[in-house]
């Protein structure tokens, strides 16, 4: 269900735009925070670094996970003094010198390079344990973090200046609370006083109304904590729901019997359905007066000259030229992971709904 204020905003648009529902984001992150007593909550900025979203999140999270010098500069400019956990594979020497609350070290070589900076550092070793992760949308195996051998190599290198604070891990994306708790139980079977369990909380694009079970997860983590400092760093499950990509049907046609609705913009604005291989959930605001098709499977595509520019395939609905299409769940790994300049179409506008006042404040703030 698209909230009425988002529908109002969408119906006033003529060109592709992102609409962010900031009150909905605020209510969601506040509820997540409440479900996690005693657990530190960081936001993984890679999911969506939009400054307006970060301003809302900043009031509820304990810090931010950043994975590049760019994200670090962005967050520390917006929130001087905020707690920053610096992660990411392949850190440059300049990145290893950045101030941090924690730095997630990915390899023994990276630790040696950190030591060579001569600076103080508070380190979490990123571990990549050999654990079966079933049912994940994306498994972070391969080059991320260290196996047992790598960890063994690192341990003697720590001292007073470069301090070992604990472990970090991020094993997979798209896991439910029970799956994440099972993994956490295994990962917390050690003496480390601090553990960051990463993100990866499931977001279902097939059922937009469903939500990760934060209450069960929070209660489970509270049991597993046993006096330790526990932290998580979700991205997608915090910001996916507050974002909408709104566009307009510019053509409806039939090719070899199949109906297509072509919308302004495309997956160079919203790449999520292509990267994840799903149908992006959407609603149609039937404002069009042009030709169209009624009650039949329609494939929604964008303006790009590639057959991959598909938002949703063969969805039973109706569409007319001039209808507005509101793609939901476009608040995470959406605009910021898209190939904006392909074909040089205009960029979308950005609108931020606030709790009061006009629904369409001027775009900006990127
Ligand atoms: C190290 C790390 N932490 C947190 C996240 C956030 O994951 P998600 O957006 O699935 O919660 C990611 C995503 O790739 C990651 O690599």
How does this model look, in words?
With 366 residues, this protein is α/β, with parallel strands linked by helices. The chain folds into two domains: 22-240, Alpha-Beta Barrel (TIM Barrel), CATH 3.20.20.10; 241-353, Lyase, Ornithine Decarboxylase, Chain A, domain 1 (Beta Barrel), CATH 2.40.37. Helix content is 25%, strand content 27%. The protein has eleven helices and 18 strands. The strands form three sheets. Strands 1, 12, 13, 14, 15, 16, 17 and 18 form an eight-stranded mixed sheet that branches. An eight-stranded parallel beta barrel has the order 2-3-4-5-6-8-10-11. Helix 2 (22-34) packs parallel to helix 3 (51-58). The radius of gyration is 22 Å and the shape is elongated. The two termini are 27 Å apart. The relative contact order is 0.17. Residues 357-366 have low confidence and may be disordered. It binds pyridoxal-5'-phosphate (PLP). Residues 44, 46-47, 65, 87, 170, 173, 198-201, 233-237 line the site of pyridoxal-5'-phosphate.
- Characterize the quaternary organization of these chains: single chain
**CATH superfamily assignment of the largest domain?**
Alanine racemase
Major β-sheet profile: 8 strands, mixed
The CATH topology of the largest domain:
TIM Barrel
Instruction: List the ligand species.
Output: pyridoxal-5'-phosphate
What distance separates the N and C termini?
27 Å
Query: In CATH terms, what is the architecture of the largest domain?
Result: Alpha-Beta Barrel
Number of strands: 18
Shape: elongated
Q: Roughly what fraction of the amino acids lie in strands?
A: 25-35%
User: Please, how many helices?
Assistant: 11
- Residue-averaged pLDDT, rounded? 94
Could you estimate the helical fraction of the residues in percent?
A: 10-25%
From the helix content, strand content and strand pairing, which structural class follows? alpha/beta
Q: pLDDT under 50 segments (min length 5)?
A: 357-366
